[in-house]
Amino acid sequence: MKKVGILGGTFDPPHLGHLMIAEEAREKLELEEVWFIPSFTPPHKADLGTTADDRMKMVNCAISNNPFFKLNTIEIDRTGKSYTIDTIKRLKEIHPDHNFYFIIGADMVEYLPKWYQIEELVNLVQFVGVKRAGSTLDTDYPVIIVDVPSVDISSTDLRQRVKFNQQITYLTTERVQAYIKENHLYGN
Ligand SMILES: Nc1ncnc2c1ncn2[C@@H]1O[C@H](COP(=O)(O)OP(=O)(O)OP(=O)(O)O)[C@@H](O)[C@H]1O
Ligand SMILES: O=C(O)c1ccc[n+]([C@@H]2O[C@H](COP(=O)([O-])O)[C@@H](O)[C@H]2O)c1
C-alpha cells in the first residue's frame, strides 16, 4: 500500500505553516507524497473573497519546488460543499492501493465532532493532528499526533496584512506573494 498524506484546506492564501506541517508529517510518517486538496466551498466558512481557481493556483505556486507535494483538484472539480467524507470515499475508489492520512491542525481536531458524518469518516481515513496555537489536541477520536514546531501563521493574518499594506515576506513563498500582487487579491 502506498502511504499518502492529504492536506485539505481553504488555502486563502497558502502559507509556510501549511508547507511545514505537510513536510513534517511526510517525514515522520514516511509518506510517499502529500496531496494538497483545496476545497471548492469549505464546509464551515462563510463566503470567501477569492475564487477556487485563485486558491488552487496559489497552492500550485506554494508547492512547486517540493517533488513530494502534489495538487489534487478533486473538490474543485466536484464543486459544491467540500465534505471530506465525499472526497475520501471517491479517492479510495480511484486508488484502492493507497492508505490515506488526513493532516489537520489542532483547531480542526477540536472541530472534529461537528464534521459531516464523522463517525463513519474516522473509520475510512487516518487523521493526523498537529499542534496549533490557541487549540488543544485532546480528542476522543482516533488521531495520530505528529510533533511539529509551533508556527503561529494563519491565512487570516496574511489577508489582513495585505489589506493594510504590511509585508508577508517570511510568511509565505515568493511565488505566492507575486501571485497575490499580480492579481490584486485581498484588497491589495
Ligand atoms: N500554522 C499552522 N499550524 C498548524 N496547522 C495549521 C496552520 N495553518 C493551517 N493549519 C491547518 O491546515 C489546514 C488548512 O488550513 P486553512 O487553509 O484553513 O488555513 P488557516 O490558516 O487555518 O486559514 P484561516 O485563517 O483563513 O482560517 C487546517 O487543518 C489547519 O488547521
Ligand atoms: O467534512 C467536514 O464536515 C469538514 C469540516 C471542517 C473541515 N473539513 C476539512 O478540513 C480541511 C481544513 O479545513 P479549513 O476549513 O480549516 O480549511 C479542509 O479539507 C476541509 O474541507 C471538513
UniProtKB/TrEMBL annotation:
Alphabetical keyword list: ATP-binding, NAD, Nucleotide-binding, Nucleotidyltransferase, Pyridine nucleotide biosynthesis, Transferase
Single Gene Ontology MF annotation: ATP binding
Catalytic reactions on record: nicotinate beta-D-ribonucleotide + ATP + H(+) = deamido-NAD(+) + diphosphate
The Cytidyltransferase-like domain, residue ranges: 6-161
Transmembrane regions: none
Coiled-coil segments: none
A Pfam family the protein falls into: CTP_transf_like
UniProt pathway: Cofactor biosynthesis; NAD(+) biosynthesis; deamido-NAD(+) from nicotinate D-ribonucleotide: step 1/1
E.C. numbers: 2.7.7.18
GO biological process, alphabetically ordered: NAD+ biosynthetic process
InterPro entries membership: Cyt_trans-like (IPR004821), NadD/NMNAT (IPR005248), Rossmann-like_a/b/a_fold (IPR014729)
Keyword Transport: no
Main EC class the enzyme belongs to: transferase
NCBIfam families reported in the protein's UniProt record: cyt_tran_rel, nicotinate (nicotinamide) nucleotide adenylyltransferase, PRK00071.1-3, PRK00071.1-4
Family statement: Belongs to the NadD family.
PANTHER family (UniProt xref): NICOTINATE-NUCLEOTIDE ADENYLYLTRANSFERASE-RELATED, PHOSPHOPANTETHEINE ADENYLYLTRANSFERASE
Function recorded in the entry: Catalyzes the reversible adenylation of nicotinate mononucleotide (NaMN) to nicotinic acid adenine dinucleotide (NaAD).
Official protein name in the record: Probable nicotinate-nucleotide adenylyltransferase
Organism: Oceanobacillus picturae
Lineage start: Bacteria, Bacillati, Bacillota, Bacilli, Bacillales
